[in-house]
Amino acid sequence: MNGWTANDIPDQSGRTAVVTGANSGIGHATALELARHGAKVVLACRDAARGKAAEERIRAAAPGAEVRFAPLDLADLASVREFAEDLPDDRVDLLVNNAGVMALPERKTVDGFEMQFGTNHLGHFALTGLLLPRLREAGPGARIVTLSSGLHVLGTVDPRDLHMEHRYRRWIAYGRSKSANLLFTHELARRLGAAGSPVVAAAAHPGYASTNLQTAGVRMEERALAERGVELLNSAVAQSAAEGALPVLHAATAPDVRPDDFFGPRLLMWRGAPARSWRAKWTLDDRASAGLWAVSERLTGVGYL
Asked: Record's family (predicted)?
């Protein structure tokens, strides 16, 4: 099926992009294509060895690319603040909130948040707020793209039990964190529009793409048989990370992107070229998005707009 591909990415020369979780999977594929098309790319990664290795791979694949690793642990708000403070660029044209965890056994972040909600949503909420002045400085064309998932349908944020302390269910926790990503994008787009800002906030999901995200949880529990099963499923039915990155790259660079757009693979939200994606109605609820925003400001200590 024909459609938008990486060859359709406009020239990114002169633009600075920050991509979280760029050492592997969707983040690495996104960073590589942005670098190939001329962007200066900051690889914001938790693991230094993997981040530097990703930098070397991109330099090898895109000779002359301006790319560098910078440490960022989204599960530690002090690390998020340090990353923002140490970023030497006066302006940021593109922020891709890609990094995430999926279906982990119950864990807490450094700051005591449920790991999936804390990493996937709160860490990126704080990072976006801290980098927003630089994005606004970039002017027209600046974008914030946050990765959600088709599995956001598993549940929305419960303000009475944000950290699932009463009954932790790993997949429900993941779905809630991905709904939080869409609620965040919805509220951010609304606030940017109300402020007259040209910065565009959009979201994307990769469909079912083969990355190490699917195996991380079972690997942590040393469930070798389950890990092997996931690997076999990925090889049989998943699209590649490069294909999964296309909706993200479209949201980040295509000229037709509107505030609060949500892109994913066009074929059953599973695979194929990027297209505007269906989303659960609760991710467009103004009251829910405003409530999540307020509690996110309180929990992270980061306020903006």
From this structure: Belongs to the short-chain dehydrogenases/reductases (SDR) family.
Report residue 274: phi and psi, to 5°: -65, 145
Where along the chain do its domains lie?
13-299
Identity of the residue numbered 33: E
- CATH code given to domain 13-299: 3.40.50.720
What residues have CB less than 8 Å from 218, skipping those under 6 apart? 226, 227, 230
Q: What whole-number distance in Å separates Cα of residue 202 and Cα of residue 162?
A: 24
Whether the full predicted model's pTM is greater than 0.85, yes or no, is yes
In a 3-state reduction of DSSP, which class is residue 136?
helix
Residue numbers annotated as active site: 174
pLDDT tens-digit map of 251-278: 999 999 999 999 999 876 667 899 999 9
Strand 200-204 versus strand 67-71 pairing type: unpaired
